[in-house]
Amino acid sequence: MSLPLIRTLVDRLVAGLIVLCVSVAAVPVLVLFLFVLINGLPGMLTPGFFTDPPHPQGVPGGGVLNAIIGTLEIVGIGSLLAVPVGALIGIFLSEYGRNQIGNTVRFISDVFTGLPSIAFGIFGYTVVVLTTHHFSALSASVALAVLMLPVILRATETALVLVPNSLREAGLALGAPRWRVTLEIVVPAALGGIVTGALLAMARAAGETAPLLFTAFGNDIVQTNPLQPMGALSLTIFRNALVPYPNLQQQAWAAALLLVTLVAATNILARIYVRRIQR
Amino acid sequence: MQTKVAPSPARDADAEIKLDARQVNFWYGDFQALQDASLAVQARKITALIGPSGCGKTTFLRIFNRMHDLTPGTRATGEVLLDGHNVLSPDTDVINLRRQVGMLFQRANPFPKSIYDNVAYGPHILGWSKPQINEIVEESLKDTALWEEVKDRLHRSALNLSGGQQQRLCLARALAVKPDVILMDEPASALDPIATLRIEELMQELKKRYTIVIVTHNMQQSARVSDFTAFMLMNERRAGEVIEFGPTDDIFNRPKDSRTEDYITGRFG
Predict the structure, then answer these.
(1) How much of chain B is in helix, strand and coil states, percent to nearest 5?
(2) From edge to edge, which strands make up the β-sheet containing B46-50?
(3) Which residues of chain B does A98 touch, with a Cβ-Cβ cutoff of 8 Å?
(4) Which residues in A lie closer than 8 A to residue B96 (C-beta atoms)?
(5) Among candidate residues B103, B123, B51, the one with its CA nearest the CA of residue B212
(6) Which of A119, A145, A146, B76 has its CA 20 to 30 A from that of B189?
(7) Which residues 149-178 of chain A have a CB within 8 Å of chain B?
(8) Longest dimension (CA), chain A
(9) Which domains are assigned to chain A?
């Protein structure tokens, strides 16, 4: 057999294997999305799904307005807490953290990344709920903020480390102090990565259920006061999926579809944003 | 103690010495990279450092504005006098030093900002007013022959410029803080011959006002552009030494040291 033929066969074989591997990775995600779409779409199209709070059991209709507002507010406040702190720690790690302190922070952050998410719920419960004697959206935000922190700070550090050293040298060679070079040159150059990291952390936090169970607690009334118990999409899914009423189960599917769409949209937006500023 | 300084024609009585390196030793950790390197750089002349790879040219150059501070574990001894003040002494204000001694790097490294913001960054750090900055940006871009090419797109990204334009932009950025000395670390090694020629032409213009020290391992470039040339080589312990230093014409046509002659005639390196 001639050599080029063997090469062609090997080439085909390896290409086939790669397609197979990609399919193994991609198909479950697509199936999951389709499954949620098929089961959730009818519920989502029910009148009042986006605009009404849940109705009492036995009253037809009702929606998840309480949960939509809750998820946005809880994640929003959590991000306000976590993004600045996480970004600052990330800047410290990249620019000043090549030492024992930096390594310690990195180690702690990695441990936090691996903690089960319910542990963050316990943190929010202990620190906020027990001290205020009250379930609240704020306690959930605190729990989610701690959960988001390691993701944000690692993403920030990675983005900053990728900024070529020649840019730092150029700034310093002009007689700029190090802190100004960091804030005015290095951070803007890495902004795409930092923003992406923050958005991905927000997307992850939005999908968390366990940290909310005994912090936000859930609330069937539309509530905007962060010091009161509040609903969230993940809590709606968790609770409604466990009850024997078909209309509530359908609502759980619809809430799942909404949550998946929000998370996917955030991810896609993050990617589009990065692509645009990289140009 | 009388320090021994390499005797050279550059040290004649009426020449103004801008930068005077005396007996500089330099270590990266335990490794000595420079041994007793001396160099007297005349004001408003171009001084070239040549020699084979690894002989310490760039290390020597980066000591002049203390860029070696950025590398952990480095240490320098000896003196580098800038207008009589020792740059290496601990009480040197490094920020001020770098405003006086600017630098152009091997690869063009514009900030990922607009053309205007690149040149304006140094003056902005110095706290100059907006009209002053506008003026200095235009002046610096004219000095680097970029103004006509970019004046209609000052607020577009500097990253869209060609490699040669980017390097001239970096030069304009360095000029904008009004330095006395400009250090150039193989500034044309990543450029095509035409862009290289433009940089070399600019150097001839700029030396009327600035003192330039250039590292190059292109001997023709050194012969073309410089007034003085220092030939460096590493010794048996791999530490860089200045072998011979003098007017470029002498180094290339009447070298005193056989090692210089071997190098410039292409017998090694």
Answers:
(1) 40, 25, 35
(2) B85-86, B74-82, B17-28, B31-42, B240-247, B228-234, B46-50, B211-215, B181-185, B101-104
(3) 72
(4) 175
(5) B103
(6) B76
(7) 164, 166-177
(8) 80
(9) 65-278 (1.10.3720.10)
ipTM for the whole complex: 0.89
pLDDT of residue B1: 39
Complete DSSP assignment for B168-223? HHHHHHHHTT--SEEEEESTTTTS-HHHHHHHHHHHHHHTTT-EEEEE-S-HHHHH
Domains and their CATH numbers in chain B:
9-264 (3.40.50.300)
pLDDT surpasses 70 at B13:
no
Is the CB of B105 inside 8 Å of chain A's CB atoms?
A: yes
What is the distance between the alpha carbons of residues A137 and A153, in angstroms, rounded to a whole number?
A: 24
List chain A residues with CB under 8 Å of B97. Answer: 175
How many angstroms separate the CA atoms of B31 and B37, rounded?
A: 15
Burial class (CB in 10 A: 0-12, 13-18, 19+), A13: exposed
Q: Quote the pTM value.
A: 0.84
pLDDT tens digit string along B29-59?
Answer: 999 999 999 999 999 999 999 999 889 999 9
Q: Does A173 sit within 8 Å of B111, measured CB to CB?
A: no
Tokens 């605190």 map to which residue?
A: A142
Whether residues A176 and B107 touch (CB distance < 8 A) is answered with no
B194 part of contact set with chain A, CB < 8 Å:
no
Q: Kindly report, residue by residue over B204-228, the tens digit of the pLDDT.
A: 999 999 999 999 988 899 999 999 9
- Beta bridge partners, B49, equal B215, B230
Instruction: Check residue B3 and give its pLDDT.
Output: 45
